[in-house]
Every structure is written in structure tokens, then in C-alpha cells.
């Protein structure tokens, strides 16, 4: 009788463990049906992991995946590009914010803009949150739509929208020595700190 009780308790504990794991993983940014994008943006940091996906040709460029990538974030600003060479590959830049940089009360205290593939922020007096937190909780991302459907979805992403993006951080090269390489950390700033994202799936909530 005692052995049966112990066995039953063990089964219950095992079932509970997998139930908890299922709930925990269901809130991953990569989970297609995870609810409330805006809420997730305030809770999650971008997810990044290794990849063995080989390089591939895309629109006359060679794309080398550097890391798997997924993000839930709020759109702080948007800039479309048409004339530079990079626009052939990544026609859309989104300045994205997560954690406290997804909080409208924080964002309202910042003057945010984009231009020349850069993302700028200014404030009056003291910054609303520590500067390093701004750096680590926001970024300018150059977006490469994987197909027409993704590009159409990204076209709906406006300032204030919540987005979920999954794909890869990549390096793009072209004949003649042209090269464009993604940052692989969220803690950098300045030249080379933007993410170059090959977007395989996108969701937008305005």
C-alpha cells in the first residue's frame, strides 16, 4: 500500500512538472499563438540562440544566418528606404522597444527619430530610465522580409504597434566586397549596433 502511494505521488509530480513546463514554454516569443503582444513586450527580452542553417542566396545577395532570433516589442519609430543599395534587401527599419522601453509612459518622455539607418533618442532634463537600460531595451532593426506575405505584414507596423518577429540575425554579402553584418548583442550602441534580421514570420497588433 505504501509503495502504491509513493508511486502515485511520483506520477502526480511528473505530470505537474510537464504541465508547468508547457505553460512556461508557451510564453516564449517564438510561440505562434502566445497572447497579448504588447504585454509580452513588457515582459520578455529578445530570444537569441545558435543556428546551423547554411548560407543561402536571396535577391542577388548571399545571406549567412548568424543566430536564431525572436522578439516581442513595441514600435517606437519606423523608416522606409527606397534609394540605397540596402533597400533592395531591407526596405524597412523599425526602432523597437521592450521591457520598460515598451511602456508608453517612458516613451513619451523621449524624442525618438530615425534616419540614415540610425535610431536616435533625446530627452529633456534627466532620462526617464537609466541610459544603459534604454540601450539594452531598444534597438534599430533592419528588416529583410523573407517573402511577400511577411513584407505585407511588416507594412502594417506603425508607431505604437506591438510586433512579434521570428527569423535570423544575419550577415549579407554581395559581389564587389559589399557586406552588412548584424549586431549579436543588445548591449551595444553606435556604429554597428543595429540588428539585421531575416524575418521569416511577423505578427502586428496596432
Principal-axis shape: globular
- Helix and strand string, N-terminal first? HHEEEEHEEHEHEEE
SS elements, strand count: 10
**Percent of residues in helices:** 10-25%
Number of separate domains = 2
How much strand content do the residues show? 35-45%
- Cα(first) to Cα(last) distance is 59 Å
Instruction: Report on the biggest sheet.
Output: 5 strands, mixed, barrel
Global Rg: 20 Å
The average pLDDT score comes to: 86
Show unreliable segments: 1-35
The helix-and-strand class reads alpha+beta
- Summed up, the helix count is 5
Strand order of the largest sheet: 3-4-7-10-8
In short:
It is built from five helices and ten strands, in the order ααββββαββαβαβββ. With 206 residues, it is α+β, with helices and mostly antiparallel strands. Mean pLDDT is 86; it is low at 1-35.
Write the SSE topology.
Elements: H1 2-26, H2 37-43, E1 47-49, E2 56-58, E3 61-80, E4 92-97, H3 104-107, E5 111-115, E6 118-122, H4 131-136, E7 138-145, H5 148-154, E8 162-174, E9 178-181, E10 195-205
Parallel strand pairs: 7-10
Antiparallel strand pairs: 1-3, 2-3, 3-4, 3-8, 4-7, 5-6, 8-9, 8-10
Describe the protein's architecture and organization.
- The structure is a single chain.
- This protein is of the alpha+beta class and 206 residues long.
- The chain folds into 2 domains: 1-31; 37-205, no CATH class.
- Helices cover 24% and strands 38% of the residues.
- It has 5 helices and 10 strands; from the N terminus they run ααββββαββαβαβββ.
- The chain has helices at residues 2-26, 37-43, 104-107, 131-136, 148-154, and strands at residues 47-49, 56-58, 61-80, 92-97, 111-115, 118-122, 138-145, 162-174, 178-181, 195-205.
- The chain has a 5-stranded mixed β-barrel. It has a two-stranded antiparallel sheet with strand order 5-6.
Amino acid at each position: 500500500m505504501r509503495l502504491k502511494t509513493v508511486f502515485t505521488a511520483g506520477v502526480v509530480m511528473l505530470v505537474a512538472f510537464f504541465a508547468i513546463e508547457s505553460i512556461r514554454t508557451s510564453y516564449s516569443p517564438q510561440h505562434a499563438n502566445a497572447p497579448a503582444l504588447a504585454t509580452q513586450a513588457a515582459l520578455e527580452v529578445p530570444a537569441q540562440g545558435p543556428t546551423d542553417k547554411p548560407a543561402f542566396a536571396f535577391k542577388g545577395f548571399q545571406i549567412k544566418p548568424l543566430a536564431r532570433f525572436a522578439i516581442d516589442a513595441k514600435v517606437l519609430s519606423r523608416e522606409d528606404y527606397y534609394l540605397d543599395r540596402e533597400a533592395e534587401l531591407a526596405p524597412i527599419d523599425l526602432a523597437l522597444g521592450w521591457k520598460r522601453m515598451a511602456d508608453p509612459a517612458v516613451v513619451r518622455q523621449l524624442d525618438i527619430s530615425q534616419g540614415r539607418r540610425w535610431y536616435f533618442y533625446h530627452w529633456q532634463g534627466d532620462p526617464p530610465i537609466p541610459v544603459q537600460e534604454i540601450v539594452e531595451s531598444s534597438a534599430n532593426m533592419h528588416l529583410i522580409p523573407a517573402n511577400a506575405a511577411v513584407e505585407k505584414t511588416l507594412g502594417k507596423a506603425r508607431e505604437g504597434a506591438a510586433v512579434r518577429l521570428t527569423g535570423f540575425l544575419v550577415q549579407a554579402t554581395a559581389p564587389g566586397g559589399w557586406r552588412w553584418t548584424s549586431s549579436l548583442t543588445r548591449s551595444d550602441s553606435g556604429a554597428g549596433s543595429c540588428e539585421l534580421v531575416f524575418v521569416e514570420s511577423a505578427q502586428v497588433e496596432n
